Amino acid sequence: MGEMNIASTSRGNAHATMEDVAKLAGVSLKSVSRVINAEPHVSAKLRAKVEAAIAELNYVPDTAARSLAGSRAFIVGLLFDNPSPNYTMNIQKGVYETCRDQQHHLRIDNIDSTVPAEKFEAQLAAMVRNSRCDGFVLTPPLTDNVVLLDFLDRSGIRYVRIAPDIQPDRSPGVCIDDAAAAAAAARHLWELGHRRFAVVRGPASHGAAGRRRQGFIDELHRLGAENPIIEAEGNFSFESGIAAGAKVLAATPRPTAIFAANDDSAAGVMVACSQAGLKVPNDVSVCGFDDSWVAKSVWPYLTTVYQPIEEMGRAAAALLLRRDEPDNVLHELDFSLVVRASTAPPPQ
Amino acid sequence: MGEMNIASTSRGNAHATMEDVAKLAGVSLKSVSRVINAEPHVSAKLRAKVEAAIAELNYVPDTAARSLAGSRAFIVGLLFDNPSPNYTMNIQKGVYETCRDQQHHLRIDNIDSTVPAEKFEAQLAAMVRNSRCDGFVLTPPLTDNVVLLDFLDRSGIRYVRIAPDIQPDRSPGVCIDDAAAAAAAARHLWELGHRRFAVVRGPASHGAAGRRRQGFIDELHRLGAENPIIEAEGNFSFESGIAAGAKVLAATPRPTAIFAANDDSAAGVMVACSQAGLKVPNDVSVCGFDDSWVAKSVWPYLTTVYQPIEEMGRAAAALLLRRDEPDNVLHELDFSLVVRASTAPPPQ
DNA sequence: TTGTAGGCGTTATCAA
DNA sequence: TTGATAACGCCTACAA
Predict the structure, then answer these.
(1) Is the CB of A18 under 7 A from strand D?
(2) How does DSSP assign B200-235, residue by residue?
(3) B5: which of A106, A120, A311, B93 is 20 to 30 A away, CA to CA?
């Protein structure tokens, strides 16, 4: 004992296998397996022996063998479609961290949902069949793609959805309370003294965008707003923000505070202000949503709602990896209002 | 023959295996394997039979079994550290596409290179050992991390580097000619009539940033520039762009054209212009580099150099997956100048 | 609590 | 050009 080292494993300089560990520890293969998988019914003494051998040999279980033989694959799949870079990278980072901490790998799959329906199913089938995965994390807009959800359910594949709009109890999921977050933004502007408001909407298909708008408006009414709230269409893009900003700024009387459904369109609104000869925040306050990377790529820095996107990724992966079958509940994470320089009291 | 269908595979409703295909085609296991792997010495007739069976059974090879038995894993690893969202997502998209087209999976691994050296090696070892991968695609700044490169070489693991700065012939790689690209930007500004130039540098540690600066300056000299070229430090960030912009705009006489080493700092320069009461492009022209997503999130839209980042990802993965041992050559892809609204002739 | 036998789906070796 | 048979490294029964 103790004389064996990494050079004496069964296959020359190859990595140690379970068999090497078993030999060194003087136990059976199955016992090593039990320790590795933290199965019950293992005596402390045996566990200690095995763990010592593992450490000495620098043993790491082989993922391919494990997934071939067992029911788990130690792989988490992350699915997205037409990703917005900032949002996606943050989600991915969070998912990755949970994977790493729980000894899983992260596999990426892009899905193109713009293809015809039949090709879409074929695409999914190919992806999933070839893909021993323990489950998938779904990001918007895939989160609400019924064809995909049906497919996964039919195939018996687990998944967790991030920020689902529809059928919230169909699967485990993580989200924030968009309405409450928008209400916080409304309160912030109200307390600064604003009384004339405008809202730049997100895409109609995007449920969270709708909840943000509604939450903002409802809170204003609750606070006693009397002036009509001006609204303009938007689609989350910078360009749509410029157009929407120009539109609401043309209203008479002009709004003194503009809430946009996300940061990108808020950045566009700021450009519209500048084009109209108005200073942010002295003449007009602008508030965004997401606290994405844009928020600090505009001047003045944008007041916005922080969404814990990375945390959502972490939580989603953790939900997926729970051994006990998780309930189909939607986990709500905390947001926070980030007050920067784009909001201030209205002119006199 | 032909009567067998997917329901009659060996294990009920499970997926078809190679054995099912072999039986249906009336050939041996190994023959199916040969067809799948496009090995030589297969008669056309046999191939046809096997392919028909594969199609009928909807057979897809099992990745886990393949990597356990064989030498390939059908997995490409993508490594990054401290990713800039836009750049990284583009690289990732390109790498993914090649993977998908060549029936490989894409695995993500984040590396934290800010940890102490010893922990860093341990981190790498854990990642690689546990990771049957056919190789890795390295993105900056990992591309030039000597500890990582040494580690991979020592472990005999293949890798392809994207935009390497150091030791360009150490491994296969893809890049663009940064100096030539910056020269193109210089020519564009020169031809607009500018004669007073400023450069906002990138981080000193970033080789490409240095090449951009040098390429820009050299080209101006070649064109016959006589005025001194004003320079300011920058680190690729929006904030550093604001500071650098303010600095170069304070010079007398003021430059009429500013070239920044990337789009983010160019966006900062535009803010500095605005803060100095100068209009872009009427008073000052600003040119960036990357054609990242920021370029169209500022107003006016940024003139910049397009880097084929997604294409670089595609090419890097393709290089990695070549069966014939590739040479350690650096493949240069094409850039292009994207003229938008932030550049114009200088004031009279 | 521990160990034994068999199989997961493929590739590799060698013989035919 | 084809085919039997043995790995690959681990897990799931089941037995002790």
Answers:
(1) yes
(2) E---TT-HHHHHHHHHHHHHHHHHT--SPPEEE---
(3) A120
Give the separation between CA A250 and CA A322, rounded to whole angstroms.
53
Nearest by CB to A96, from B106, B108, B299: name it.
B108
Rounded mean pLDDT, B122-137 = 80
pLDDT in tens, B27-49: 999 999 999 998 888 899 999 99
Q: What pLDDT score was predicted for residue B130?
A: 65
**Per residue in A74-114, pLDDT tens?**
899 999 887 677 888 899 999 999 998 988 999 998 888 88
User: Is the minimum distance from the CB of A240 to strand C below 7 Å?
Assistant: no
CA distance A311 to B320: 33
Nearest partner of B293 among A110, A82, A264, judged by Cα: A264
Check CB contact under 8 Å for A274 and B88.
Answer: no
Q: In what order do the strands lie in the sheet with B230-232?
A: B230-232, B197-200, B257-260, B285-287
The answer to whether some atom of strand C lies closer than 7 Å to the beta carbon of A46 is yes
CA separation for the pair A14, A57 (Å, rounded): 11
A69 touches strand D (CB under 7 A): yes
Binary contact (B131, A271; C-beta < 8 A)? no
Q: B213 CA, D9 C1': separation in Å?
A: 53
Q: Do domains B75-176+310-332 and B178-309 have the same CATH topology?
A: yes
Comparing alpha-carbon positions, the chain B residue that sits nearest to A67 is B64
Is CATH 1.10.260.40 the classification given to domain A3-66?
yes
Topology of the domain comprising A75-176+310-332: Rossmann fold (3.40.50)
pLDDT for A212-238, tens place per residue?
A: 999 999 999 999 999 999 999 999 999
Q: Grade residue B293 by pLDDT with cuts at 50, 70 and 90.
A: confident
Q: Which nucleotide is nearest to A50 (CA to C1')?
A: C2
* Residue A16 confidence (pLDDT): 87
CB contact under 8 A, A89 and B85: yes
**Closest residue of B to A264, CA-based?**
B297
In this model, does residue B8 exceed pLDDT 70? no
Q: Which fold does the domain A178-309 belong to in CATH?
A: Rossmann fold (3.40.50)
How do residues A150-199 score in pLDDT, each as one tens digit? 999 988 889 999 999 999 999 999 999 999 999 999 999 999 999 999 99
Domain boundaries, chain B: 3-66, 75-176+310-332, 178-309
Token look-up 């997205």 returns A80
A270 to chain B, closest Cα gap in Å: 10
Q: Which two tokens stand for residue A94?
A: 């969070």
